[in-house]
Design brief:
- The complex is a heterotetramer, with two copies of chain A (253 residues) and two copies of chain C (321 residues).
- Chain A is an alpha/beta fold.
- Chain A has one domain: Glutaconate Coenzyme A-transferase.
- Chain A contains seven helices and 14 strands.
- Chain A has an eight-stranded mixed sheet, sandwiched between helices. Chain A has a two-stranded antiparallel sheet with strand order 3-4. A two-stranded antiparallel sheet of chain A has the order 6-7.
- In chain A, helix 1 crosses helix 2.
- Chain A is globular.
- Chain A starts with a helix and ends in a 7-residue tail after the last helix.
- Chain C is of the alpha/beta class.
- Chain C contains 13 helices and 13 strands.
- In chain C, strands 1, 2, 4, 6, 10, 11, 12 and 13 form an eight-stranded mixed sheet that branches. In chain C, strands 7-9-8 form a three-stranded antiparallel sheet, covered by helices on one side. A two-stranded parallel sheet of chain C has the order 3-5.
- In chain C, strand 10 and strand 11 form a beta hairpin.
- Chain C starts with 9 loop residues before the first helix and ends in a 17-residue tail after the last helix.
Amino acid sequence: MEYTKNQMMAVTLSRQIEDGKAYIVGTGLPLVGATLAKNTHAPNAHLIFETALFEGNPQEVPTSVSDLRINYQASVLWPQYRYFGFQSIYAKRGLIACGFLGGAQIDPYGNLNSTSIGDYFHPQTRFTGSGGANGIATYCDTIIIMKHEKRRFIEKVDYITSYGWGRGPGDRARVGLDPKRGPRAVVTELGLMRFGEDCRMYLAEYFPGVSPKQIQENTGFELDLSRAVEARPPEAEVLDILIHKVDPLRLMI
Amino acid sequence: MEYTKNQMMAVTLSRQIEDGKAYIVGTGLPLVGATLAKNTHAPNAHLIFETALFEGNPQEVPTSVSDLRINYQASVLWPQYRYFGFQSIYAKRGLIACGFLGGAQIDPYGNLNSTSIGDYFHPQTRFTGSGGANGIATYCDTIIIMKHEKRRFIEKVDYITSYGWGRGPGDRARVGLDPKRGPRAVVTELGLMRFGEDCRMYLAEYFPGVSPKQIQENTGFELDLSRAVEARPPEAEVLDILIHKVDPLRLMI
Amino acid sequence: MNTDTKVMSAEAAVSSLISDGDCLAIGGFVTNRRPYALVREIIRQKKRNLYIEGGPSGGDIDMLIGAGCVSTIIVSYIANSGYTQVCRRFREAVEQGAIQYDDYSLDVQTIVYHGAALGLSYVPVKNMLGSDLVNLWGISEADRKKHPKLPDKKFVIQEDPFNPGSQLCLVPTPKIDVALIHAQLASPDGTFRISGAQFQDLDIAIAANKTIVSCEELVSDEELRRQPELNSCTGLCVDAVVPASYGAHPSQCFNYYDYDSRFFIDYDNASRTQEAFDRFIAEYVDACPTHADYLNKLGAARLLKLRIQPGYGYTPGLKRK
Amino acid sequence: MNTDTKVMSAEAAVSSLISDGDCLAIGGFVTNRRPYALVREIIRQKKRNLYIEGGPSGGDIDMLIGAGCVSTIIVSYIANSGYTQVCRRFREAVEQGAIQYDDYSLDVQTIVYHGAALGLSYVPVKNMLGSDLVNLWGISEADRKKHPKLPDKKFVIQEDPFNPGSQLCLVPTPKIDVALIHAQLASPDGTFRISGAQFQDLDIAIAANKTIVSCEELVSDEELRRQPELNSCTGLCVDAVVPASYGAHPSQCFNYYDYDSRFFIDYDNASRTQEAFDRFIAEYVDACPTHADYLNKLGAARLLKLRIQPGYGYTPGLKRK
């Protein structure tokens, strides 16, 4: 069975989603993965956008979190500040299973940079900034989507846009954040990383055709490979739904 | 020309309203007075209710500030918290000309009690409480409507629900309130009181048929009568509009 | 689409979601869209020691007080305006010391419910400064600490860190256990749509730990999702949907019906004494085990006379005195 | 009814209400309902030294930066998502040190605009704690004190007086001089109605000292007041109403039109260099002295192809790449 790296990522993201729970998704692969989940094992998953658009069922892939395509069969189109309140209250109550994040750099503790490369005051490369990422990282468990490159997986990021586990256990509480929430997984085109009790990233799954060694070679810090297993390839019927129903125009996969 | 005390009060209230300005009105006489103003000299006055219902043109007298009758030709039916924000911001900018208040007791400095008579913890008579009154007194200039009785106009009220001028100049700033806003007038069935530079109430106008002496006799503290003039009686055409157009069912007048 | 349903009877919603001692917040405004059907069910089930976050309270909360359900009320206003200027069971309970109470202003209750729905710990305001709302605590700090639900402090006064010299009153947001709302439309997944003024309903629905929504009409999820821009709230904030036409009677319901003046006048009289009140409750609540029984007791003709007239939004010429 | 009218041209609104050095907040979200017609007029009038409260910024703010109108931006996001992932004139200005900037998170910008509309001095939040949004101030306290409009402090960290041991980040609310909004409907007295997601528009309209609303359709006051429950804002918060069909082009407008992908692709290319950008502005802004000229340049057929399809709310099958 043939499938692309992006398709394997989408399937992996989809597998993180449980039926009946609520997720904060952005555009791109997280939305594709979540939509795939809703079309397969998790029809009652609730998708929330940082624009305060709730539970839409986009029929075409949206280009932004404000795209009118997200409104389709949504439950509410709230003003922006309602998302602020919902996020903090419902995350605290454990009713938001997780939010999806991306970034340009990540460290072993899941601290993320989506602001700039180099000195913040004289950046070599400037990005858009936090968007909703910092808020998600403040209140929710997170799943992070990254390109797996050595320059992106580094010991210390240039700027912490979204706080992860700090430098280890106890750090979230120390800075004033809920210690029970934080990064849970990192999905790349090579595999799936999780975080141990020491708050450090370890390799949980390597994708078919990828070796743990290859993943270590693409990671700028030492990764515990001892717990890694090979990921299941996409099931044929899941791949079929992904390709023919979720993103038939191949905008994202 | 015949007219009742309530009609004279409504006309007096109406005269306080200027065209093009915004006013916070409740039900009862303030609304009648304001509606009269809109039907005579101030067609562009804006009436705001503490329910966050804006600029309605009730065709029947509403019984409460939430009455559906207030929605008629309104501009917005905002959620409650929008009133909170509008009040504080637009009062600060001088765009709310004043709010109307009532109470069970008033002191010479316009401090008002609408909470209870006697000890607050073991009240002899309990009223509803502040409602929106305290907020109006916090942010806006106010016009106060009272029954003119000695037991209501007293040196010290049992409970300050709505802060007026405190005990004199400088007190509003001292407690943290805008010193430029505060009580401007008191309208009763006997006349119109205003506040001097010493922040104390004085008699400005006595209604036709009422003497300043009679007003002093019905006031539990000393009132400066030296600046008092007789109020103009209602103009015939104004009275006609009041009786036949504003409150034809005589619910309030 | 979600395949669960949150639809249940008032009896099931109140018995499964409200416990003795809970903090309740109730939607609507004084005589407009108050969830009376749910309140009557609370009385029927004899819930006790409730702590009421009052806001713009109406006769519904007065009934809860008269029926002995309430031990604590945080209050700023309670009336059937135009009919009962100070609710009478509330008034007697306060004057006789039968109830714990503390006063805020309505604006402050409004903004702390909103703050609660924004997930804020407190809201810093100018309101109440100088007044006895600040100087006198109806419930002392010691009593607050003994109370399982109240914040320890009514407020804290602090200098504004961004405006030196300016005082602010920091008011803590309440922790509401259950919100009761009456909406025009709701669907099985809990999505609801309030038409007309929303008052503080959405805030308490989001802030509360559990939310019960009664509705004039139960419609399909698909129907509400055709126009999400008109919906008030996602079902993620709702735990029970209770179909109840005329569920806000005797109060008003935008687009549906006006208030029932005769009922308010009757209640004004009945609430003058505990004895008359008890008879009234026996007749309108206990003798009507379901909302349908209550509607039948009032009679179809009486209810239909209250229907609003489109274009006015109320019932023009309604007998109101 | 009010007999005044606030209707005026974009030219009159921008020249009479916006001054060099003003703090501007702009409605919509990234590629949705951004008031581009008003923004083009600001560029035409060569306003300078603007301080932009960014929020969910789109290519419109990138154009202002590229055109040299902006000296300070408070930012959390700026993109034409799906077309330009980081707006290019912004990026170059930051990388070359040509602009003063500081970063918040989008949630925090959202809530401080809301707090500003609630009249609050600051909002106490958990957001940003631990991150470099707190550790690094893009604009130092010294530079803030020199700035005529910025608050002296980016935030203050304080213990929560109601939750001992819990830290809060107190973020001051901005003082917005002018808000720019694009609404579907507005009427001469300034009342406006946004359909679909409101984003942060109502907050900035209420909070700003002056508010300019462009609209797809100008309707009578009476028409909007027939259904006040659908209106977004009273005219008391509005200073100018500017009729501008397709006034949000190239962004989307709920119930009216989808985004113009071709335009976003062209802008993505044009904004790669200052020279290409300048040619783009010369062509689409300076060579089109009025909004009507701009629409004619795009052509009727191109605009009509963007009309949304009822039932979908967007243009199904629109060419988007």
